[in-house]
Amino acid sequence: MWIMCLTLLSSSTGCWNYGEVDKLSTVAGIAIDKGEDDKIVLTVELVDPTGGNDSMHTGSQLITLTGYTIFDIVRRIITESGTKLYWAHAKSLIMSEEIARSGAAKVIDWYIRDTETRSDIHVLISGEKTAKEILDSKEKVSDPLSYRIEDILKNEKNVSASPVMELWDFVDTINTPGISSILPVIYLKDNNGRETASINGLAVFDMDRMLGKMDYLQTKYVLMLRNELEGGVVALGGYDRPPGISLEIFSNKTKVKPVIVDGEVQIQVQTHTVMAVDEVLQKVDFYTEKGRVEVEELAEDTMEAEMMKVIQYAQQKYKQDVFGFGRIIHERMPKQWKGLEADWDERFSQLKVTVESKVIIKNTASSIKPILIEEDDK
CA of 329: how far to CAs of 58, 102, 277, in Å? Predict the structure, then answer.
């Protein structure tokens, strides 16, 4: 009996190959750029346990190599690092715009297929000339920049200035009819002489090829139309001067319904948003029921107008259904979709869409009167 117990104990202990851990280099992030003669420039950010400012943090180091395939470069990086690479903790994969415009599939194929990588890595497009310069920025952080990027994306739901997209989701969207892929865009921002990473806006794709970008305001309403908006701020004007009121989004629910009108498939969008008055820069009556209704109606008008603007922008500039209207038609009207799928990009550009917003201002602070500010007579 005791022999069996010893056998079970020895087989259940973890980290049987723990001695191999110190022979691995942990990859924190990857940057992919286009080199000369159609070569690929791959930069990996490696965790450097000895490079941090204190015992609680780690530093990082960059290794850059060039080749014709990702797999070939990855193998050769081992000779540069002196150790085998450990990919399971990689957090960010950044592609240059040049790579994305030429087709992202060829540079992410290896990452999807390899057994040592994970497809839950975040994918971004560099808003700078190259992807490498994002990882090679002068931002002074105590951990690898790729880990900080992950933290920024985790908090993105409070801002809704960019989508959050993991590799598996990006690849799945490429292969899904009736919806075009989008990815967040990352920039370097000067902050009092110090470079910091800033993620806002999105890149629009046709299959795996990037076509262009949308700014952070357009992105907010793309996310709303995709029913992916979790937070953020809506600034309102229309009283004394714009903007005069800032509303914080607590929750949003978007319903997209395909309908047939006069034999033509159309889309009806309804949004239901719960908000709070977060800032008031002018004399506005939002503390009485009548005043709150007026603010709600102004918010509804603003959101409807912004949604229609971003729909028309996507239709006219890119002809790409970044909202997933086609996917919903595919799911709910499969017969009609058969006649639309073959040339959906063109059909989408002509698609009639109506939007209707319902806003509820619900906040205990909304009963507090605004601070009265004396304004100069001019």
Answer: 49, 30, 36
Two structure tokens written together for 135 = 């990882």
- Give the mean pLDDT of 15-38: 77
The model's pLDDT over 292-331, given as tens digits with 9 standing for 90+, comes to: 888 899 999 999 999 999 999 999 999 999 999 999 999 9
> pLDDT tens, 108-140?
999 998 888 999 999 999 999 999 999 998 665
Q: What is the pLDDT of residues 202-254, one digit of tens each?
A: 999 999 999 999 999 999 999 999 999 989 999 886 544 455 788 999 999 99
Residue type, 214: M
Enter the pTM of the model.
Answer: 0.87
Pick from 162, 170, 73: which is nearest to 122 by CA?
A: 170
What pLDDT sits at residue 53?
Answer: 53
**Rounded-to-integer distance, Cα 38 and Cα 316, Å:** 32
Task: Give the CATH number of domain 227-378.
Answer: 3.30.300.210
Write the CB contacts of 255 (distance below 8 Å, at least 6 apart in sequence).
227, 269, 270, 271, 272
d(C-alpha 287, C-alpha 185), whole Å: 39
Say how far apart CA 128 and CA 136 lie, in whole Å: 12
Total length of the chain: 378
Percentage, residues of the chain above pLDDT 70 = 83
Nearest CA to 257 out of 337, 329, 162, 156 is that of: 329
